[in-house]
Specification:
The protein is an alpha/beta fold. It is about 50% helix and about 10% strand. The chain has one domain: HUPs (Rossmann fold, 3-Layer(aba) Sandwich). A hairpin with an 8-residue loop joins strand 4 and strand 5. The mean pLDDT is about 95.
């Protein structure tokens, strides 16, 4: 069998067959868990929207419950897009503003304290985000803090490790509080919780442990982001969802996922991850992405580095002895 050329066509998907396959898996999983339906957070993005649509196809709208969970840094349109998807699918949904909860737990206070260590004038009137650098150039990844003062001027500085860790720890409160809300409603309804990471996020550890990484079913974790977009169109989701670029929706300044975490935008990262998983030479990837061979090699190195760095996120609790009576 000949090796297919390294083009986006390697990510082509039989959408009809895949929807049916995921649906059967979802039904079987619920039976195994003895649950009556599913709960999921609706961010307005393509991943959660596709997961909701897949659940409706598999279970019917009456067994799917959606949650819109904005906070003060959420983009203005995220809850609106989540509501649009919920209403199109005909599912019951609820708006739960988590802002007061994450403020009470110290999210904004701890975050802003770390940001003022870098920019002393930073306050509530400023906007901010974190950006990654280094990966595709072959350097060690590091993070920059980018802030915007009230006069609209942007400033950036390399983040010291201590401040970076504190900012990330503080903002992780948002994902963990959302998951707490999801599991409250799951317990209330005797439902299971759906997690929404795609393959790129799952493989590279782009999730918060016991936050958006926690779930009972992860129906699209095997699908590259490109394939999730294909399913979105196949499932007839709103155009605003099908054409939206991935964002973190975590910081007050607009921020793409590639800016925060990945070395390249998702179409190129999908192809790079697929190529690495299928042991394609770096020279072939370089030609496909119009990179130098050195850059493609650095990209493969960065993929492996992120897998090592985030192994802990996938790890189960460490037990002194196995407990065979309750193991999988």
């Amino acid at each position: 069998m000949s090796t297919p050329p390294l083009t986006p066509d390697v990510l082509a998907l039989d959408c009809t067959a895949e929807v049916d396959r995921i649906g059967r898996h979802m039904v079987d999983s619920l039976r195994g868990f003895h649950k009556r339906g599913v709960v999921l957070g609706l961010s307005g993005g393509v991943d959660s929207s596709v997961c909701a649509a897949l659940a409706v196809r598999a279970l019917g709208p009456k067994k799917v419950f959606g949650l819109l969970m904005p906070e003060r840094d959420s983009s203005a349109g995220s809850a609106d897009q989540g509501q649009l998807v919920a209403e199109q699918l005909g599912i019951t949904y609820l708006l739960e503003n988590i802002g007061p909860t994450v403020e009470a737990i110290g999210c904004y206070r701890w975050r802003d304290e770390a940001m003022r260590a870098v920019f002393p004038d930073y306050n509530d009137a400023w906007k901010s985000k974190i950006a990654i650098a280094g990966g595709v150039e072959g350097r060690i990844n590091f993070f920059k803090l980018i802030v915007q003062s009230p006069d609209g001027l942007q400033h950036e500085a390399r983040l010291p490790l201590r401040e970076y860790l504190q900012i990330v720890a503080a903002t992780n409160h948002k994902q963990r509080i959302r998951k707490t809300v999801e599991y409250f409603h799951a317990d209330r309804l005797n439902y299971a919780v759906i997690g929404t990471p795609n393959r790129l996020e799952y493989d590279q550890g782009f999730f918060v442990k016991n936050g958006d990484g926690a779930a009972d079913i992860k129906p699209i974790a095997h699908l590259y982001k490109t394939q999730v977009y294909a399913l979105a169109r196949h499932l007839g989701l709103p155009e605003v969802v099908c054409s939206a670029m991935p964002t973190t929706d975590t910081y007050s300044l607009q921020q793409g996922q590639d800016e925060f975490y990945f070395a390249l935008p998702y179409p190129q990262m999908d192809l790079a991850l697929w190529a690495h998983n299928h042991q394609r030479p770096a020279a072939e990837l370089a030609q496909a992405l119009n990179l130098s061979e050195a850059q493609a090699t650095h990209l493969y190195t960065d993929i492996e580095a992120k897998r090592r760095a985030t192994h802990y996120l996938h790890a189960r609790p460490a037990l002194v002895d196995p407990i065979p009576q309750v193991s999988d």
